[in-house]
Specification:
Length: 144
């Protein structure tokens, strides 16, 4: 029998409250301290996705992508293709810094189908277009 576990991707930041608020607003979610660990802030998105943010006063933003083109760990957010531009505007208005926008050939006529950003603490994240709109629960298909 496997011991029950919960997986949380944790990002370090010099100002974790600000970074947690950024992701909570971007994901339309909430933020609060982890049960039993007030040093860890948890961001819970509308679809139940959880992201952690922990204080690191010596945080140095990661370099991504590396000049050699190696991908580093990053947060990958799926967005309905027709809402990609709107999602980009939201991210930038909240403090994201565009890093690159590239066409993977998936959306003819679109300037890009996935876009890379640095969050306010310098961590990488991607807005990636999916062919269908996402429902309120994060599933693909028409919202019910």
């Amino acid at each position: 029998m496997t011991v029950p576990k919960t997986t949380v991707l944790v990002l370090d930041a010099a100002e974790p409250e600000l970074l947690a608020r950024f992701y909570a607003e971007l994901l339309g979610g909430t933020t609060g301290p982890a049960p039993g660990d007030e040093e860890l802030l948890l961001v819970t998105g509308r679809t139940g996705v959880v992201l952690g943010v922990r204080r690191d006063p010596d945080h140095v933003p990661p370099s991504w992508p590396l000049p050699e083109g190696s991908q580093q760990a990053h947060v990958h957010m799926l967005v309905g293709a027709r809402h990609l531009d709107e999602a980009e505007r939201e991210a930038v208005a909240l403090g994201a810094r565009p890093v690159a926008a590239e066409d993977d050939g998936g959306a003819p006529g679109s300037r890009t189908t996935w876009r890379r950003y640095a969050d306010p603490a310098g961590h990488a994240f991607v807005l990636a277009a999916v062919g269908e709109d996402l429902g309120p629960d994060g599933s693909t298909g028409s919202p019910g």
